[in-house]
Amino acid sequence: MNPNDQKILLMLCPFWMPLIPPVGLACLKAYLQEHGYQVEAVDLNTDESLRLHYDNYMKVLQEGVPKDRQGNFHSIAQDVLRNHLMAHLNAVDPELYGQLVQDLVYKTFYTEFDRERVDRLSGHGENFFGRLEQVVRDIIRRQKPSILGLSVYSGTLPASLFTGKLAKEIDPNLKIVVGGGVFADQLAIDTPNYHSFLTYGEEWLDAVVIGEGEQLFLRFCNGELPSDRKVFSIADLGEKRLDIKSAPLPDFSNFDCNRYSTMSSYTSRSCPFQCSFCSETLQWGKYRKKTGRQIVSELRQLYRQHQFQLFYMCDSLLNPVMDDVAVAMGEEEIPIYWDGCLRADRHVCDQKNAMRWRRGGYYRARMGMESGSERVLDIMGKRITVQQIREALVSLASAGIKTSTLWLIGHPGETEEDFLQTLDLIAECKDFIYDAEGTPFWYFLSQQPGSADWNRNNPHRLLYPDWASDMLVVQTWILDAEPPREIIYQRLNRFVRHLDKLGIPNPYSLKDVFRADTRWQGLHKNAVPPLIDFSNKERPIVECLDIKDLVVMGPPPEEDGDFDF
Fold it and tell me: Whole-model pTM above 0.85?
């Protein structure tokens, strides 16, 4: 098939938090263009008219939930929105639809909503889909693509299904291909949700690409995939995987990068570890990484193109490349600052390493600490200790690097004592924590390394009524295990109150980030520059080149005392 005869349109639908430009679409765009295709990419998450409906919905939802039950609202409210929008697309009986929305709210916030508030939420959903239809029709009319590729995540699933179906109605000859992270968990192969999804898209969906997308999508465009199948995964590539060292630089040319505070890139694919709750290795296959010099060279090219000095690296973990990148970055006159996920291993606990990374531009460490209980860390397969968590926080914070900590609430087997140990550890280390976020445990029927054991040892069931399956299409499953869901969400509320009492932020808005940065500047002499400093693109920041060594004592011994919950 001749690439000149086709135009490819790649699209990310709402709602996905616009922290960074979508690097997945940028990588796919660059790869397809390298093979001769004309490709355009669209990120609808920066469309103000669509974001307005999101904000209106969230305002009505938050106003109806008591403050002490909101938990990590900006995260868990996405579950209500996603399921509500999906139900809105498929509702037939208004009474059952209203009952389901009430159930969605109750089983997330354990708060009763009356029908008047449910109707207000539904009105914002109706307005959103009405506006989305206008936007999609205009894009299809202007672009006239022959292939539409939709990058789908959990939060974008309802809008993606709506867009795919609508696009096929607009142009029956248009080929619709979907892929993305949702197939690593909620739509994992051969689960009930996966089969429901395929049934739902039977009339308009042409292909599903699961896992690493570049090679499979190219084969689809070239007409090299079997025509009697719709689903293709990395298993269809055999042992062949994309050589990321020779992959083209991500192409962000179609995105309004000024709508983002941070640029994005990547250093590796997959993960060298297998924590029980994570699907990363099952999605990407074998771990691969670039060299430090290549990484810095690519960041330098993107800096020249877009004038962003701060990058978020979209890797599962940066540990294997930290030293190489820091050394290579140390040779640059104008350093690039980089932000990304880090595992609290022994190498991170060494303050000399942290200082070297800080001088090499490392800006923010996003760390899945998960628990303050040694027992739970072992159950998870984290292969780190509570003492390593303490030492890693002190090491990074003493260098001034922001420490963003992630905590998993309610992993199967977590007891009240385990949970209290998490709260105690956070209190002990509060001055070495830039911010903290708690997320409730999510269970999937497969694709988590721990799924087989959980399925074997615990019954699982649908969270929402069986009669709602046609509306939701993608159902939520839970384990009948300790702790139960309601206890998990109660602990999440307590977790958030604990952070508030300690003064540890969990920023979501730029105003929140400013306050968090001010706190960090006051706590640590070596603190990295505030995020707002990177908005001045005319004056490059070079302070990391002159960071001085500091000797910082660890957190004080844990004090006895009661917390007010």
Answer: yes
